[in-house]
Amino acid sequence: MNGNGVVERSGDTESKMSEIEVMVEGEGLAEVDIIRIPAGSVTGAIVAAVAVRGGFPVDGAALFIEDCEDSVDLTIVVVEEDVAGKVHHVHRAHKIEVGVFYQGRKLTRRFAPSVRVQRVLDWAVGTDGFRIDPPIAPEMELALHGQTTALPKNAHIGRYIRHPHCELDFDLIRGIVPNGASL
Predict the structure, then answer these.
(1) Sheet of 96-102, strand order
(2) How far is CA 78 from CA 16, 139, 147, 164, 174, in A?
(3) Is residue 20 within 8 Å of residue 46, measured between CB atoms?
(4) Average per-residue pLDDT in the chain?
(5) pLDDT digits (tens, 9 = 90+) for 22-64
(6) What is the pLDDT of residue 177?
(7) Domains and CATH numbers, the chain
(8) CB of 101 within 8 A of CB of 110?
């Protein structure tokens, strides 16, 4: 019993505030991270936690769910079941003007910062993009413009820019062919 007449038990889960784990990417983060927010928090708490980790002010930052174009209302109460297994993205750029270069041409389209590199790649090789021959399309990758290293396909594009920049250029490159030979 403590001085206030309350019995304290070591490891008592009821005496500890429960937390919700949220997978996040965002401005200033180099990879997916996990944050913990108190149960009952609003989605704005996710923005605040990522802003601290990313080293940017909360003002103007938005929360996105992976591959969703629209931002999330920051006053919604976070429910563990709704965030489990999803990667959330916090960024001050609400849309990114993406350019993809291939064979002397450049195509552009706007995406949310939470969009994965794979989704941009699918657009670039598809019928709205460069119309890459279907047997070759799986060999294509995206690299930052002027570089040759393929980017992780699950990375959010917002990882590669910081506010106030809202433009990002990629090169469409041919990666490793299935037999292991490099082109």
Answers:
(1) 105-111, 96-102, 167-174, 140-144
(2) 18, 39, 39, 28, 41
(3) no
(4) 90
(5) 999 999 999 999 999 999 999 999 999 999 999 999 999 999 9
(6) 60
(7) 13-91 (3.10.20.90), 96-174 (3.10.20.90)
(8) no
